[in-house]
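Form 7-S
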Amino acid sequence: HPEIPFTIRRVADDVLVARGSNVSIDPDTGVHLLSVAGDARKDVASYLDNRMRYVADVETVVAEVVASIRDAKAEDRSGGSYVLRTASNATGDAGASRRLGLSDPGHDDPRSDSIEVEFGALPVVRETDVIVCGLGTSGAEAARSAAEHGLAPVCLEKHADVGGVNTVGGVPAYWYGRRTPFFKKWHQTLKQRTRKSNIPTALALYEIARELGAEINLKTPFCGVEIDGERVTGIVCIGDDGFCLARGTYIIDSSSDGDIAAWAGAPYTYGSERDEITLWCSFGQFVHGKYEASRQYQSVIDQRGIHDTSRGAIAGRRMTGVAGRGEFIQDYIATRESRHITGRTVVTYHDVIAGRVFPDTVLRCKSNVDIKGMASSSAVMCGYVEESFLRNFVMSIPYSALTPSTLSNVLVVGKAYSITHDGISMARMQPDMIQLGAVAAHAVAEATSTSGAGGAAGAAPLHALDVEGLQRRLFGAGLLIDGDLPTGPDDERVPPDTDDALVDLVDRVVSCPPEPDEWARLFMVRERAVERLRSATDAVSWLRPSTAQLLCALGDRSGADILLREIDSLIADRLPPVAGNRRHDMPDHGWAPRPVYLLCALAECGELGLVPRLERVADLLEIDRTVSDHRFSYVYAFGYAGERLARAELIPVIRRVADDPAIRNSRIARGADPRLTQDYIGERYAYLELCLARALARCGDPGGYRTLIEYTGETRLYLARSARAELRDLAGLDHRYDVEAWTAWLEAFGTTGPEPKPYLIRHA
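Output:
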């Protein structure tokens, strides 16, 4: 912005390539993701909206940038980066109640400091019915569908193409997802356009939306919001002349990361509810002539932080994808999971597996269980996960999961809607997210048709929308079909709220091993389920192992002896691998050896009899740091049991595993060469070291606290943030990432350490 001075700060040491010649950058100077385009072009395609700038003299540009960085470093050696925050609430125009949100209040990065910036009145460049923020999987269809409804959407996209993960992300296949009449028609139209004109998907999506009246602004990042009470009244974006403001009555947040809602202060969870670990990100490489990228399923990136995003890109360039190394580096990091904006309903893993239908269902999805990474729900940890990779489930997204709990005119679509970590592993497939974008456009059209006069001031709040009217629209469009809504209290796709429904469900579960939808419905009504299960098992002469496991997983010890005996038989002379001899690097899909599931179920019910079984596992465990196989799950079981039981009796056996050379000292210090983090197997052992440390700390071991304190200085941001969050919960205070302050706090307890404190939350 012409009125705001910026200084480039050091981020990372890397090498620039300019026309085949390497330009080395001094490590003390560094360059942060400097990207220079190739030869100049006279004919810039119209669909780029003249926002892509081509540079001819690459060497000169590189030299000038490097020189300017060195000049800046000569004046200021502080390093780090800055997050903008507004110095005052007012935006400078007549609306004195309006304020700007330029950063995420739910996030802080130890390598970034905040600075306050005084803004004058930003130029208002657009005023419209609806703004679509992000033209990825959901946003491209939201733009098309909104235009089809005559809403004249203004659409903002930071990349030079639309389509998101399907196009620039290099994942062009629609493997899973529900094929509704709407989607079949949509897909056929797209194929006809690409084949007839011989154009790529990104251009076809762009042309279709433009022809219907959508205004598409490519290479236009949005970086903040204007807020008035519970309404987002405008989007701060970066145009050719600096910061500007686009105002809209309604906002569709299709950023895929929930950026708009988060900047407006909406609450959210990030990744796993336990520790912010997300599904593995995808940062692939392209091979000449192939549209599909050689993707990676290996690591975690916190896209909220500029440093961690940079680190992930630097490491990802040096990793090998599923189809080997490519010739071209992808510039689109597909995080697969990030924020989950808290809506008026939170969809859970139990809801997904049960195929639950909500009264306000607006979309039904279809997918396999695809937890690419670490699971978090207690159900998965205790073995309630589908073993077949190919089995599909049908699940619902309710309208109330799209409406942020604190905002009245924003809909969140894409993978950032209100759902848990394990739930999003399934309800996120591209065809479903495309259709979710269409649902949002229909919702805005419905709200616009029922709003009174007066523009934004008279606009109906989206959370108060007539959902039945919206559902009629969706049935008419083929997005919903017969059978997609609940039929009554006896519908087996809803929680067993009546006594008769619960009795019938429990009787089936006791008589034979439960199907996925059956155990999922019991997890929805945990306390009532335990009471009825105990009553039903009293009437039988023997208890099935499956029923004993379910009781323990639900927190009741009635079946603990049966599980202990089964574990003894399973680990008598070896540690069994994952069933089916899976070849995936662990953790993946929630799969684990059966003894691990049983140990976790015993931990859920507080059974101390698992301690000698853990000692037996430790005797048999031979960890190989070069691989992440079934032994990962056995190690994790020590942490899971320790943090839930929080008893001193567990400290010696957990310490045995934590002190194994393969696990100890897996941390990479903040500020280290980011290329070190390309070792994704090492990253998984660092995660295990963190899990064991928090288990030891919760058992009252000072050594566990010391390891957690060390991890607040970890360079991989999710590990540092997880360590800090654990310390904050245990201590009841917050020293952020200050190692010295945390150490002083711990030393005040002397040699005994703080009191044990169990982790009692059961994630769904």
